[in-house]
Structure formats: C-alpha cells, structure tokens
Amino acid sequence: MHPPPVRAMHWINAVAIFIMIGSGWKIYNDDVILGFLHVPDFLTIGKWAQHGLQWHFFGMWIFVLNGLAYLSYGIASGRFRHKLFPISPRELLKTIGDALRFRLAHDDLTHYNAVQKIMYLGVMAVGVLIVISGLSLWKPVQFSELADLFGNFQTIRVVHFLCMAAIVAFILVHVTLALLVPRSLVAMLTGGPVVSPDGGPAAGAKARAAG
Amino acid sequence: MSPHKHPPSLFRPQALPNRSVLTENKKLIDTVSRRNVLRGTLSLGALTLLSGCDVTEEAPVQSFLRTVSAWNDRVQGVLFRPDHLAPTFSPAQVVKPPRFNAYYPIEEVKPVDGATWQLELAGRIANKQPWTAQQIYQLPEQELIIRHICVEGWDYIGQWSGPNLKNFLQRIGADLAAKYVYFHCNDDFTESIDMAAALHPQTILATKYAGDIITDPFGFPLRLRTSTKLGYKNAKWIRAIEVSNTFTETFWSKQGENWFAGI
Q1: CA–CA separation, B250 and A78 (whole Å)
Q2: Chain B contact for A133, CB < 8 A?
Q3: Would residue B67 count as lying in a domain?
Q4: Which of A94, A119, B43, B134 is the most buried (most CB within 10 A)?
Q5: What's the start-to-end Cα distance of chain A, in Å?
Q6: What is the pLDDT of residue B7?
Q7: Which CATH architecture fits A4-206?
C-alpha cells in the first residue's frame, strides 16, 4: 500500500520536521511571541540561536525539496486522488461517531477513513502554508509580494508559529495512533499489505511506482 | 514447524568466546556493579536528550552547517533584486526613539566625539581623504522610513536620513565592481555587505533619525541603514569604510550568524 518512494519520502520528511521544529523552537526562544511560553532548552536544537538558525536553514532544503517531490509524486501517480478522495460528509460524521465510541474500524489499512483523509490533506495544506510564511519571514523584502499577503511582519511570525503548532498537534495524534495500531507503523517501513490488482487504481499506482 | 522448538537466535554467537578472558580480567569484572551500569545507562540516556545542543558545536557538524550557510549566501545573492524597493511607511508609524541593539547593553555604549571624529577610507577607493562629520552633513540627504528586522524576530519602523551610499562610493572613486564593502566601527565591530546591497537605492549612511542627529546609543555620528539586510548588518559608530575583493569573516559571521543576512 505504500510504494518505496512514499516510504522514503515519509521518513526523510520525519527527519526534516524533527530538525525544523527543534531548531525553530530555539529561534522562537530568542524573541518569544507568547510571553509565558519558552520552549525548554533540552527540546531545542542548537546551542545558541544562531545555531538554531543554521539548522533551520539547512533543514528547510530537505523539507522543501522532499515536500515538492512528495506532492508531485502524489498528484502525478494519482495516489492523492485515489486515497484521499472522495470525502463524503456522511462518512465523516460516521467516522467521528465511531471514534468517539472507540469503535473505529482499522482492519483495512489500505483504506483511509474520512477523518484520516481530512487530516492528511489538512497537514499538507499546513505544510504549504508554513513554507510560504517561512519564505516571507526569510525574505520579506525580496518576496515582498508574498509577505504582503499576510500584512505586517509580526503577523507572518504568528502564522508560521500557528502552522508549527498545527503540525505538532498532527504529529501527536499521528504517532499515538500509529503506536496503537502497530501494523500501520510496520506498513510505513515494509510497504504494508499488497493491494490486489482488482483493488482499484491505487494498485495501478503501486505497479507503476515499482516498475 | 514444532511450536515448542525455537530456531537459534540470529543474535546468538555461533562460537562461544574463550572463557580465559574472564579470569584474566577478573579484577575489572569485579568492579562492574549493577548499580553503576544502571547509573551509566541513565547518563547515556540523558546524553542522547542533550545531543541536540551538544552535537552542534562539534567541529565537523559546525563546519558542515557553515558550509550550508555559505551556500545559502550564494542563493540569497541570486534571489537579490537590485532595483526592488522595500516597503516604506508614513512618519506617523515611526517608533521614537529607535530600539537599541548591540552585542552589549546600552549602558556600555562609548560615545564618539563628533568634533574629532573622522571617517577613514581604505581599500579599492581612489580618494582616501578622510571625512569630518560636518563635511558629511553637507552632502545631499536621502530619507528612508523602513522596517528594521532583527534576526531575533522583532521589528520596528524607523525614519533614517543621510547620504546615499552608492552616491558616496561614486564620489570617493570606489571600485563599484569590487565584491565587498566593510564597515569598521569604534566598538571593535566589523560588518561587511556585498556590493549589490551597497549599491541598492535604499542603502544610506545615516546621520539622522526622525529628522534629528542620531544619538549616541544608535550610532552617532555615522551608521549604515539598508532596507535589504537584517538589523545586525547595519553597522553603527562607523570609523572606516573599506572596499575590497577579499572576504573576511565579520563580527557576527564569526559567531555563526549568516553572513549575507538578506531580507
């Protein structure tokens, strides 16, 4: 269900996100947005703020290049279209209801429920927004057209910060659920259940990737 | 396969080690206590938590990160738009006084004596005659109401005026094809910018803030203000300007900050 490029890009992204969040917290601590919120030093990457910046501007290359490869692959192979769409409002309500009653079905890993589809699409949108806001923070003059979309400089910082918070929230849910259903974690390492040839277009995508 | 018979573990050695090792090292083995091993494991665990901070300053890691930072300098040079102007603001938005920033607190600022101060010129410059403050005040002034962005994350709108740097470099016969312009300062601070940024229309040698002569903490009598660099590149209390093709690490780049620092 997860062709090799998807698995490789997933784990590269995990490393990139680790670097970006750890170093981002170091940079954040230098001039906090929320007066009461300082990130404990042991959770940050880099000895001083400038080292946090060094890591951040190294990690950005991995995150952006890997992210572009992932989005291009997901769109070109049809993986996004087949795995994340359609999302029916009725299925969404049913999934939420099942989740609240702890009756969420996960016997078929290859099929994402409506909440999963929305979470994955949502985190991808946040990923795009964190890059756009990051570019605006890095180059508010050279990319002033981009920075103008947000208003003033501090607004861009807040947007970048909220995107980080959303990604951290996603990771907490994502990792918790992966640990609760260990087969899903194994699937991201080994590829998971083979999608049968009559399993629809997703199988075709896999075959193309393998070929 | 019988359910009760396990295949030999992959991790079990095929041949056992020579047991004489145990007698030869008996003294050492006796000192190994469970408590110490546990304690050691704990510190090892703690070390992995701290590795994020510790590993950064290891020479190979720091060398790698600085190589990436130098690569980012080149990328920023390519992204730079020589004629693209930074946003400007209205006098009503100007923060007075400006926000202080230096590598030491405001109480430690050593004021410059404007009467004896001279701007020295060095490097690839045809006319190296020094300039007094009065001579500089007589040059045509340009006013900039621009955003100051600090690498830490804060910003404010400031109103700066003084001679345009490109005009000044032309006037003194500087080699405009050279790569770098260095600013040597009274507080043992040196920063440099690339020539493209020096020639940008919004780069000035500021002598005034909000219409008045700049006060001591903010760089009296002469400081750099450019709309295309982070705050720390804007040298204050300038005593000499040097035009050069040679790259030398600057005050902040030596500390690991990005040299180009373009915004």
Answers
A1: 50
A2: no
A3: no
A4: A119
A5: 15
A6: 55
A7: Up-down Bundle (1.20)
